[in-house]
Amino acid sequence: MKAHQLWQLPIKDMKSAPLPRGRTSPKKHLCILVVAFVSIVTLWAYLYPPQHYTSPMRDWLPAEPVRELTDQERASQVVFKQILSTPPVKSKRSKVAFMFLTPGTLPFERLWEKFFEGHEGRYTIYVHASREKPEHASPLFIDRDIRSEKVVWGKISMVDAERRLLANALEDVDNQHFVLLSDSCVPLHNFDYVYNYLIGTNISFIDS
After folding, report:
1. Under a CB-based contact definition with an 8 Å cutoff, are residues 165 and 101 in contact?
2. Got the DSSP string for 136-154?
3. H or E, element range at 167
4. What is the pLDDT of residues 104-148, one digit of tens each?
């Protein structure tokens, strides 16, 4: 009965007790600041390590095996050092080297002649014929054969032939881009399109 009477009391007669407010301890604030400071210092040290810093992990790793270099490796090391220390040669007019790797006569030589026609001084041609001396139908390809050796598909001799082509092309300092082609390749765009596309980029294309 009393409970029923209490329920009937008007709202203005009911008093609400104030809820206790939680207070944050100063120690908690201090812990948060310390953790934040340590995190920032650790992240900074990870992103920007000292110049002469050596990781302690290096002392735990086994020492690298020391072996004597072969004559070819030592010669290559010297050549690479010379290449890296040599200042780049500025080309007066950039050219594209077209390097043909073919077993013999190029079947689309006339088509390539139309492609190169009128653009002298902007390209160079190199032909590596691995089986037989090619018979050139275009005057643009005459005297463009390099010393060639037999090439077997999928063997290291194919890589050697590509290196031979590249070595000959690198003798011309104006060659800035190098295109490796087979006897079955044909141009799909005109010379200006291909030239501007290659000269305007600094990346390599594989199977393009």
Report:
1. yes
2. -SSGGGTT-B-------TT
3. helix 156-170
4. 899 999 999 999 999 999 999 999 988 888 888 899 999 999 888
Cα distances (angstroms) measured from residue 118 to each of 17, 37, 102, 140: 98, 69, 25, 11
Q: Return the bridge partners of 127, or none.
A: 100, 145
Q: State the chain's mean pLDDT as an integer.
A: 79
Q: What residue segments make up the domains of the chain, in order of their start?
A: 92-199
Q: How far apart are the first and last CA of the chain?
A: 94
Q: Which pTM was predicted?
A: 0.58
Torsion on CA atoms 195, 201, 207, 208, rounded to nearest 10: -50
Give the separation between CA 192 and CA 96, rounded to whole angstroms: 11
Q: CA 176 → CA 63, 64, 90, 200, 204, distances in Å?
A: 42, 39, 10, 11, 12
Per mean pLDDT, which of 25-34, 88-97, 159-168 is the most reliable? 159-168
99 contacts 180 by C-beta, under 8 angstroms: yes
Q: What pLDDT does 39 receive?
A: 80
In the numeric block, the tokens 């400071």 are attached to 37
Q: Which of the 8 DSSP states describes residue 38?
A: H
